[in-house]
Specification:
The chain has 395 residues and is α/β, with parallel strands linked by helices. The chain is 35% helix and 17% strand. It has 2 domains: 164 residues, Rossmann fold (3-Layer(aba) Sandwich); 207 residues, 3-Layer(aba) Sandwich (Rossmann fold). It is elongated, with a radius of gyration of 23 Å. It binds adenosine monophosphate.
């Protein structure tokens, strides 16, 4: 894997694909700068080598040129975070952009305008990618969030850089973390899959059954498995047409020697409401009119034991409806177990959608080994797909 550490950027211009698709409020102020912070180490390495950085990103989903999606709004935020006054140019290709790049001195940073102001970007247009390639000597991809897209700036542009292309430190860290979970991590390896639906996680489950020792299944997915096994799930969420699939997964896991851990008890509620009446019930004896909305105390204890005996942990998806305070306990307890295992030396990766939100909400972010920055890209990696943005650098 070629990373920025394999290059010396002295007197070089690095064309860096970053993911600055940050949330803005109505005054165009950045409300969460995590993604800018995450790209900082790569940019600083280039500058400290004596090079200059040309930053390209998309922001939102503009229809053509729309001022509200202009990256000029975030130039000052980037300057503050980098500690370097960032220059801005009002297009990402063409003479104006090329002139701005030519005028860059070592130690300087130039921010190009939103890539998606050109429809050629998402189409992966080769001519557009070639125009982009004129804006740097070395191409650096540090945008994991878009690595699953074969867009001009994330994938196609790489073909114009022969050997002068590499991963930024953020993307390298993402690749390393996924690799630890899927192949090189210390055993026992445990995956926790929660969330609402079997159907959205099935490809991940199939892919990781070959890689893990333990699979913890929680959240809304639980009930499809329990019903398939003949349990009473009351009004709990269930995908009836996925019951057979659930049984197949259990069978395959057994054949492969993977231990599956399902909840044994749940916190039942008489409505999908934070203020509903609740009681702890066995997962396979949920009365009519009640639904399981969180893991129960026995389950939390069982999962804790599995997690603490693991050396490599992947967490994707909450154990309950964590958005409601009264059904967040299982997810918080799981987070605490993963933090404790991490303190004892396990490697823990949290990735993909809602588990990242939960980890941030409950303050586990800095206490696990790594929190992925890419939702869709992370899920596709776990499904075993080769991401085009990653393949383009490795080619
Ligand atoms: P996903 O996007 O598939 O990872 O699912 C995340 C969503 O699953 C969250 O919004 C949770 O509220 C929801 N969820 C977790 N457990 C349950 C459950 N027992 N019943 C209904 N929804 C759930």
């Amino acid at each position: 894997m070629k990373t920025i550490n394999d290059f010396n950027f002295e007197n070089k211009k690095a064309l860096i694909r970053v993911d600055f698709n940050v949330p803005l409020n109505e005054n165009f102020e950045v409300t969460d700068a995590t993604r800018i912070q995450a790209a900082k180490p790569t940019i600083i390495k280039v500058l400290e080598d004596g090079g200059s950085a040309v930053l390209m990103s998309h922001l939102g989903r503009p229809q053509g040129v729309q001022d509200e999606f202009s990256l000029k709004h975030i130039a000052d935020d980037i300057s503050d975070i980098l500690g370097v006054q960032v220059k801005y140019v009002a297009d990402c290709v063409g003479q104006e952009a090329e002139d701005a790049v030519a005028a860059l001195s070592p130690g300087e940073v130039l921010l190009l305008e939103n890539l998606r102001f050109h429809t050629s970007e998402t189409k992966g247009d080769v001519t557009f990618a070639e125009q982009l390639s004129k804006l740097g000597d070395i191409y650096v991809n540090d945008a994991f969030g878009t690595a699953h897209r074969a867009h001009a700036s994330t994938t196609i542009v790489a073909q114009f850089f022969a050997d002068n292309k590499c991963f930024g430190s953020l993307l390298a860290k993402e690749i390393e973390s996924i690799d630890k979970v899927l192949s090189s991590g210390e055993k026992p390896v445990t995956a926790v899959l929660g969330g609402s639906k079997v159907s959205s996680k099935i490809t991940i489950i199939e892919n990781i059954l070959d890689k893990v020792d333990h699979l913890i299944i929680g959240g809304g997915m639980t009930y499809t498995f329990v019903k398939a096994q003949g349990g009473q799930i009351g009004d709990s969420i269930c995908e009836d047409d996925k019951q057979e699939l659930a049984l197949e997964i259990l069978k395959k896991a057994e054949e492969k020697g993977v231990q599956i851990h399902l909840p044994v008890d749940v916190l039942g509620a008489d409505a999908f409401d934070n203020d509903a009446n609740t009681k702890v019930v066995a997962v396979n004896a949920i009365p009519e009119g009640w639904q399981g909305l969180d893991a129960g105390p026995e389950t939390i204890k069982n999962f804790h034991e599995v997690i603490l005996n693991s050396k490599t942990i992947l967490w994707n998806g909450p154990l309950g409806v964590f958005e409601m305070e009264n059904f967040a306990k299982g997810t918080i307890a799981l987070g605490n177990s993963i933090v404790e295992a991490t303190e004892k030396g396990a490697f823990s990766l949290v990735g993909g959608g809602d588990s990242v939100a939960a980890v941030k909400q409950f303050g586990f972010g800095s206490k696990v080994s790594y929190v992925s920055t890419g939702g869709g890209a992370m899920l596709e990696s776990l499904e075993g797909k080769t991401l085009p943005g990653i393949a383009a650098i490795e080619k």
